[in-house]
Amino acid sequence: MVEWTEFERDTIKDIFSKIDYDVVGPAALTRCLVVYPWTRRYFGNFGALYNAEGIMGNEMVANHGKKVLHGLDRAVKNMDHIKESYCELSQLHSDQFHVDPDNFRLLADCLAIAIATQWGSAFTPDIQAAFQKFLSVVVFSLGSQYH
Amino acid sequence: MSLTPKDKATVKLFWGKMSGKSELIGADALSRMLAVYPQTKIYFSHWKSCSPGSPEVKKHGKTIMMGIGEAVTKMDDLERGLLTLSELHAFKLRVDPTNFKLLSLNILVVMAIMFPLDFTPMAHLAVDKFLCALALALSEKYR
């Protein structure tokens, strides 16, 4: 089981109470699709994702970005049972979407960068460490049911 | 994943904007790497402190940025340009090359903080490609 300090718990709750889901979710997913173009293979039905402009203006990408970010809510509410909370989603990503789990880490990195553009220097090294630790647990959990 | 002329131009543009604050940027990126990935502290066990703001972190942040600055001037042939630095990291410092991407991510985070509007996904792509190419060149002499 993951051990969280009080600072880490408070930081995660604080980040998610202040986050603008409508901005950060789309920003993170957009960044992932632009910076790591192979991730586009999972969104074949989203229309034209041939270039950055196409991706940045794509409504399906934006909506999915919000959905993915809200997908973290269950981890925020259940920090002591994150792995269990993602059992079903992990199976889904493995068996139905066939997502290479290394891509979860790439999206997590893009999420950290998206938050950094929003928060600026308020995104201190300690806050970043807590946030990335939280994301790494979610990333691990999402890969846990792969076989 | 080689650098296009546009990638190189983007990197040079950002480097130009960063050059006046490179010490601060290097120290910030290094502090973040040490906080987010505590295992990287093993390479600095001889320091008194790995905390943000410590003199050792500031000094080493500056050293790292000077190395990156050198890489920016040698972007057309990173492998040859960074041979000496590669030998240093391979034979003397013996840094596991997997750590290069950990520092790269934190350089990108600092750039996102400094340039929230200009560090667009396209700019991020160009700088990430450059840092990956730099890490590859730095790994050249390992084996």
Offer a quick outline of the entry.
The complex is a heterodimer of chains A (147) and B (143). Chain A has 9 helices and no strands.
Provide an overview of this structure.
The complex is a heterodimer of chains A (147) and B (143). Chain A has 147 residues and is an all-alpha fold. Chain A contains nine helices and no strands. In chain A, α2 (21-35) packs across α8. Chain A is globular. The model of chain A has no long low-confidence stretch (mean pLDDT 96). Chain B is built from seven helices and no strands. In chain B, α6 packs antiparallel against α7. The model of chain B has no long low-confidence stretch (mean pLDDT 95). The chains are: A mainly alpha (147), B mainly alpha (143). Chain A binds chain B through residues 30-31, 34-35, 52, 55-56, 109, 112-114, 116-121, 123, 125-126, 128-129, 132-133, and chain B through 28, 31-32, 34-36, 52, 105, 108-109, 112-113, 116, 119-122, 124-125, 128.
Largest sheet of chain A: none
Q: Give the mean pLDDT of chain A.
A: 96
- Count of distinct strands of chain B: 0
Taken from the alpha-carbon principal axes, the silhouette of chain B is globular
Uncertain stretches of chain A: none
How big a fraction of the residues of chain A is strand? Answer: under 5%
Protein structure class of chain B = mainly alpha
The secondary structure category of chain A is mainly alpha
Distance between the termini of chain A: 22 Å
Helix and strand succession of chain B?
A: HHHHHHH
Task: List unreliable stretches of 5+ residues of chain B.
Answer: none
Largest interface: A-B, 24 and 20 residues
